[in-house]
Request: fold
Amino acid sequence: MEKTQNNRAWFLVLPVLVLVAFSAVIPLMTVVNYSVNDTFGNNEFFWAGLDWFDEAVHSDRIHGALLRQAMFSAIILAIEVPLGIFVALNMPKKGFWSSFCLVVMALPLLIPFNVVGTIWQIFGRGDIGLLGHTLAAIGIDYNYTSDPFDAWATVVVMDVWHWTSLVALLAYAGLQSIPQAYYQAARIDQASRWAVFRYIELPKMKGVLLIAVLLRFMDSFMIYTEPFVVTGGGPGNSTTFLSIDLVKMAVGQFDLGPAAAFSIMYFLVILLVSWVFYTVMTNLDRQEAK
Amino acid sequence: MAQITLKNLAHSYLPNPKGEQDYALKEMDHVWQDGGAYALLGSSGCGKTTLLNIISGLLRPSHGRVLFGDRDVTDAATAERNIAQVFQFPVVYDTMTVRDNLAFPLRNRGQDAAYIKRRVDQIAKMIGMEAMLSRKAQGLTADAKQKISLGRGMVREDVNAILFDEPLTVIDPHMKWELRTQLKQLHREFGHTMIYVTHDQTEALTFADKVVVMYDGRVVQLGTPEELFETPAHTFVGYFIGSPGMNFLEARVSGTRAMLVSGAGVDLGDDHGTPSGRVQIGIRPEHAVLTEGQGLPVTIRRVEDVGRHRILRAELEGQPFNIVQPEGQPVPALPRVAFVPGKINVYADDWRVAPQGRAA
Reply:
């Protein structure tokens, strides 16, 4: 039987197309518009070409923010991925405590970002915060509002607290899908605990870990709310990450042209790095299959 | 290598088993000779895998002891027991090459490199994977992976026993036969105790010297293939072994005579006394002969020609009854069936009643 061809079915896609155009494509185009024009208000635009891009590429301020951003993402990935795997390995595999752990682990993920920020902002205060007060009481000089190292530590620990669960839950799902026979075979082969992890658990978790790394990279690279609430990008600009800097530039200083150029490049960088991640990891997969 | 003794062994997966029905394995006492090739045969869910896992130490029995030689290993970990086991579905280490997979159990035991290489090459040759040694195990076909699992199970020479848990399920029929022959040859060469779990009677009968038939958590018979065929100890064995299985007829038995429900008499050839309970006589289809003169009237429903012989699906006394007829013999117009005396088994409540001696 021949299938009836009816191209009018494409009309069904129209509502989505309109919606996406209004919510994403057109706003993005206005950003593009700002990035190649200069404006002094009144909706008057003067062609600026690639000047703003040129300025952004050579701006020390943006370089600094990019460096801090890359450091931040690298640090939290280096902590959250191994820690998440470690937690997943030690979670009970079945029964009441497994459900209990799952619920507790999911809790941080359900808290809105600015609430997480507020929690840690208060938690770390020397006068009323449990953490800040305790540290002060045992004689550790901790002040996240004046010491860049303390500010970094607070922001990193906060992110670890907020997001390690995600890695752990994904890794846990990966672990649960390993058939019992693999562990039995390993016991019969007298494999060490390390060998079981290296040759059974890690390969089976690879798929979900790839997703975990990708998600954590993208999220951490775009992080805004939490450090903004806790440190506001300070002290000085020591915790001013890319998006905080971008908001300062666009909304604080109202430099719409440079900010638009900045955000377009920011978007491209995230896209590029994610693509590189993905390609490298799927290629590794394919090579192994050979 | 060691003789394996199961002493009063029983297992229940429930923490507080109430009655017999709660036991996956009912109490049993068995000795598995060192160097024997055993097949554990039974339908799915009869406790075969449970028993295997108890022997390998993956499962601790809730009752009884397991002995290797004189050593009580009931509480010993799998690694201490020095046993190899091959599972139903292939278990390979995906990220390793085929060579590393085969070498893995030896490396974990700290054997020296030259020995490992020699041994791996030997095993690779046996399973026919010499050409693939440097490939990653990931992406191989299911039967190639299962061959690796088999190879990994056999790579150690000093094991106490090698256990196979339906290892050829995923292998294609041609390869199945070949691998089974290789296993058998390996058994002759090295004399490992081998225990082979299967629900396929051909596999069991061709592989093993001794077949252990399990039914409902119980070992119902341990014997040579011939014993299982000629004198099944339990109706399940009669029904499970042979194709088609044994025919059973309700009867009353006294001495050398059996009386069927219809009142027809059958000469048993041996004196079976007067068993009580539910009494049945069992006749192998191979031991039923079609005649024209004597015997019981039978209705033939269907004839299946399987080459070397024909299977007649018949009806006797209203019950289905199978007869195996040698090639080239005609089906009579008014068929009757006679039984070979001395080849008839008598069962009381499903268990075989041994004859008390030949009648005069």
About this structure: The radius of gyration of chain A is 24 Å. The mean pLDDT of chain A is 86.
